[in-house]
Amino acid sequence: MSLEWIGDAETARGVTERRFDIERAGRTVPGVLWEPEARTPETPLVLLGHGGSGHKRQDYVLAVARRFARRGIAAAAIDGPVHGDRRAGGPSDGTAEMVEFSRMWRDDPAMTDQMVADWRAVLDALQAPDVLGAGPVGWWGLSMGTILGLPVVAAEPRISAAVLGLMGLTGPSKDRLRTDAALVTCALLFLVQWDDELFARDRAFDLFTEFGTTDKRLHANPGSHVQVPAEEFRASVAFLAKHLSVGTAREGQR
Q: What is the reported pLDDT for 252?
């Protein structure tokens, strides 16, 4: 496994952004790290899983990452399968990515384990003493960020708090999600959209029931899959900041 920084770091309004690639078992894992301007040897880190048809730097991922960084928490995102820089020729329209991901979700049983291994390699690399150090770790990921992120949370003991949601016990990996949910023991915030047209709320409630942790809470809001209210984004950042033992320093504007 090797970490390579791509291009120059860019700093704006207290947040430093650095593009990286990690080589793991013949796979290139493209990612971005956002760091607070003033960090400690054990700066907390939140891993961000983007949604289907998106990429590691889509608007809401970028906004959430900057919110974390302005609270003194580093954040990192990587592209999901057939998304972003993992695509030949770079990003394309979201519809094609979603169709290809759905096909891969159905037909490639190794996809989830490969992504878990990718994320664990990213965590190993970023927690090196000369990068961030071994601070506390959280997970934030909705929709596809839960399809692929819930197994990461279940497999990775370094993750001490997680935000998941916009997903239920459905789809090709529903049995895997049920099994992995039972293994989750960290603090959990789970988000549900009441009128979700992709993953029905009753299936989301079924998944929430399966989580093994007793430290779990569910927030449900009206609206479709993509209509997560702005206050829930703020609340989810505050939830992870609290559980990663970070003070509620003024975060500033986006």
A: 34
- Dump pLDDT digits (tens) for 144-186: 999 999 999 999 999 999 999 999 999 999 999 999 999 999 9
Q: Domain coordinates of the chain in residue numbers?
A: 2-243
Question: Does pTM top 0.70 for this prediction?
Answer: yes
For the 2-243 domain, the top CATH level (class) is alpha beta
Mean confidence (pLDDT) of the chain: 93
**If DSSP states are collapsed to H, E and C, what string results for the chain?**
CEEEEEEEEEEECCEEEEEEEEEECCEEEEEEEEEECCCCCCCCEEEEECCCCCCCCCHHHHHHHHHHHHCCCEEEEECCCCCHHHCCCCCCCHHHHHHHHHHHHHHCCCHHHHHHHHHHHHHHHHCCCCCCCCCCEEEEECCHHHHCHHHHHHHCCCEEEEEEECCCCCCCCHHHHHHHHHHCCCEEEEEEECCCCCCCHHHHHHHHHHCCCCCEEEEEECCCCCCCCHHHHHHHHHHHHHHCCCCCCCCCCC
Q: Is the pLDDT of residue 93 over 90?
A: no
